[in-house]
Amino acid sequence: MNGSELDFWLGSWHARWEGGEGTNTITREFDDRVVVERFEGRPSMELTGYSVSVFDAEADLWRQTWVDDWERSKDAGATWEPAWEIAYTRTG
């Protein structure tokens, strides 16, 4: 497994949602073993996000960790709901 399953995601993206727009840039880093996502909600809103995806060969699956404000919880994290839907268009 070389992790090529996420190659479709690599590149620059224009992000659009109701009432705003931003960008999302996806790169391979750390000797091509990690896929990094950088989301930028500006100028529409003061929101940035970051994710790191790594292939777990033993479990034969991708593991992703992200930090951002895309979801919200009204019960201290017992359940989560999306804050909004985002449409992506490739720009590069």
Explain what you see:
The protein has strands at residues 11-17, 20-29, 34-40, 48-56, 61-67, 71-72, 81-82, 87-90. The protein has no helices and 8 strands. It is globular. It is an all-beta fold and 92 residues long. Helices cover 0% and strands 52% of the residues. It has one domain.
N-to-C span: 26 Å
Tally of strands: 8
Number of helices: 0
What overall geometry do the principal axes of the alpha carbons give? Answer: globular
Q: Measured on Cα atoms, how large is the radius of gyration? A: 15 Å
Integer average pLDDT: 89
Q: Order of strands across the biggest sheet? A: 5-4-3-2-1-8
> What fraction of residues sit in β-strands?
over 45%
Helix content: under 10%
Structural class call reads mainly beta
Unreliable residue runs: none
Query: Largest sheet, described in full?
Result: 6 strands, antiparallel
- Total number of domains: 1
H/E order of the elements? EEEEEEEE
